[in-house]
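Below is the record:
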Amino acid sequence: MIGRIDTLAYGSRLRNLPPVHKLLFAIGALVLALVSHPLVQALLFVWMSLWITVYARVPWRIYVLVVSASLAFLLAGAPALLIEIAGGQEWSPTDSVWASWQLGGWVFYVTEAGLTRVGILAARSLTALSCFSFLLFTVPFAEILQVLRKIGVPSILTDLMMIMYRFVFVLLETAEQMWTAQKARGGHGGLSETLKDAGRLVFQLFTRSMIRYRQMYISMTARGFLDDFRVIGYSTHVRSKRYESEAVAGLLLLLMLEWWTGG
């Protein structure tokens, strides 16, 4: 999936727009997503999805898959925000209680305040995720590093980011090869065997990753690596007045709507 996202970023129809403009646009939208109300956040999510699936021509199935996978983390943490616990003798139902369950000497209940809290968090997370997805699908990672270096981010940080990003692909490729090899040897027969094979895979993956890292460092040193990566831009960036005008006008309209609705 990560390799697919990287390919889509290089093939995006917004690829030739200046990466600085796209980065500023995503940051502006992200700030608005964090401070605005749910109505503005919903409109911003629809607008950013339009940029991703229509303007950048990213397949909507992949966009929905990325958003759904990320929302799984939100759903995993929702019960901690939604469900409250009280002792059976201390608890008394109120009008704000939406549902309750008694288990032994404890009462688990959901209040309207909890539902509102989860709803606000979900709206904010979903909108912020759309802003991040716009950057992910329209700006190749190498261009993000170029922008970070131009604004003065230390090269040691950008180099670490590049190594971590590239090693994601190495880890996934190695894990897939090892998983296939285990299945070819008759592994993963049942739940207990699958768990044991997964444990062996994690251990061997760490060992092989360290070997791959050492090989990569030796190859870079042999080519004259001097503790500083040089990223070359292969694309000619062209400004678009239409996209610039739409981005600025859209953000201003949403800001005015946020102010008008009491922001």
About this structure: DSSP finds nine helices and three strands in the chain. The mean pLDDT is 84. The radius of gyration is 24 Å. The CA atoms of residues 43 and 123 lie 11 Å apart.
